[in-house]
Amino acid sequence: MQHPVFELERRRCAALLNKDFVELDRLTSPRLVYVHAPGVIHKREALMQFVRQEVQFSAVQRRDLQVRAVGDVAWMTGFLRYEGRRLPAQQAFEAFSFVVQIWVRVDRRWQMEVCQSTRVEEASWKEAAGAQSTAGSPPQKLEPGKGASVMCPFSEQGAQQ
Fold this sequence. Notes:
Elements: H1 4-18, H2 21-27, E1 28-35, E2 41-43, H3 44-53, E3 55-70, E4 73-86, E5 91-106, E6 109-119, H4 122-133, E7 141-145, E8 148-151
Parallel strand pairs: 1-6, 3-8
Antiparallel strand pairs: 1-2, 3-4, 4-5, 5-6, 7-8
Helix pairs in contact: 1-2
């Protein structure tokens, strides 16, 4: 059986694209620590402000996701690709990262407590696509809005309840 944080991460990707702050609030812990690839550190409110005012995503994609869990703690690793525009200048960007997330279950609800992103080369992202194709898990794709897409091909290798 697939761990619940796979679906929650898919929902988080869609919420970033749609600027769905109610969903992002549900999926992130009040104690969230989010470390961006360039080293900027945000708590939850600062992250919400960043997404509201400084960035508009047109793609949020995940690859080669792995989850390990013990009790009420799960950690997810995998590749991430963001594409979009920095606001207000509308400067286009594309970024590739390897991400480690810690999800914690409190009162029967999982929330992301920590996210650490490290920049990687596009080649690493492409290599992960090859690994993904052998994992046996088909890509899941959403069409959340005008010109935006989410593709979260999850790997079930190593997923534990």
